[in-house]
Amino acid sequence: MDSRYLYILPKIHKPRSSWPYPFMPAGRPIVSDSASESVRVCEYIDHFLQPLSTLHPSYLKDTCDFINKVKGQVVDPDWFLISADVESLYTNMKIDLILQSVADIFAEHPHPERNDELILKLLRITLENNDFEFNGKFYLQICGITMGRKFAPSCANIYLRRFDYSAMNDFHIKPLLYGRFLDDIFALWPGTLAELEEYEKFLNNLIPGIKVKFTARKRIIEFLDTHIYKSKDDTGRCVLATKVYFKPTDTHQLLHKCPFHPRHTFRGIIKSKFIRFKKIATTRWDYEQACATLIRVLTTR
Question: How far is 180 from 227, CA to CA, in rounded Å?
């Protein structure tokens, strides 16, 4: 068995102005759990947690699921499009609250073939004994959950269930079409910007360590790999539409077309991209614009 080791995935998609140092972007800490002594235990735990982690009403499976829920929805032209991300979610999750949230969802969804006590014991052991190697030294993580554990995304979804419920029901203004993909949140805001600031403060006091920062725009906003914008349908109603969103730092570094790859491999990559653009884009013009962007970059390469 190998020891777990820490490495950093640089967030190169973030604007340079947000980098902690001029030539070093912020990083996402990952503790590799591959081939460690606990990898099979983590897989066993996730086998029971993953089906439960998708049961909350705000759950978004992926981009297609999000698009199916928002595209074509009739909205008020004055409502704000809002998005937010939970800051450093995994490293700010408290171990005792993780265990309590999992125990709560087990109690809500009992299963005769699931040994709740055993799973909770195994979960506690893996959370409290997450040792890893970095720069030749060994460390023990005493707060949070590591990105790299098989069950980490499932635990994160379960951990934020109470947060989502309060976000959807417990403020005097209710956001509309509220949805969350792990640490990314989207909603419509029918109130004012001042009321949105109050809402943000309300959410930031729900769970210790869990903080969000909202972005609000009137006409168009980015979420995941889409742009959501207000449009008009054939009857003149204001509806939501979507199109492909390319991050400013996206260089479209796909597999290079060279003699070492079969021709169908390159064609398959391009075809899959066009299919994805087609699923995301509401209008033909949006689809053609996304295709033109990709074709221009690849032609140059």
Answer: 16
**Among the listed residues 57, 42, 282, 84, the one whose alpha carbon sits nearest the alpha carbon of residue 188:** 84
Residues in contact with 71: Cβ distance below 8 Å, sequence separation at least 6, in sequence order:
240, 241, 242, 282
- 151-205 pLDDT, tens digit per residue, is 999 999 999 999 999 999 999 999 999 999 999 999 999 999 999 999 999 999 9
- CA 249 to CA 258: how far, in whole Å? 24
Q: What is the pLDDT of residues 200-237, one digit of tens each?
A: 999 999 999 999 999 999 999 999 999 999 999 888 89
Instruction: Please count the CA atoms within 13 angstroms of the CA of 154 that sit on its side-chain side.
Output: 19
State residue 238's pLDDT score: 94
CB atoms within 10 A of CB 173: 14
The strand order across the sheet containing 238-244 reads 220-223, 226-232, 238-244
CA distance 28 to 237: 42
Domain residue spans of the chain = 6-222, 251-301
Beta bridge partners of 86: 212
Q: What is the CA radius of gyration of the chain?
A: 22
- Please state which of the ranges 29-38, 42-51, 150-159, 286-295 shows the lowest mean pLDDT: 29-38
Tokens of 275: 């299919």
Calpha distance 151→105 (Å, rounded): 15
Three-point CA angle 65, 66, 72, nearest 5°: 110
> Cα dihedral sign for 110, 179, 155, 244?
positive
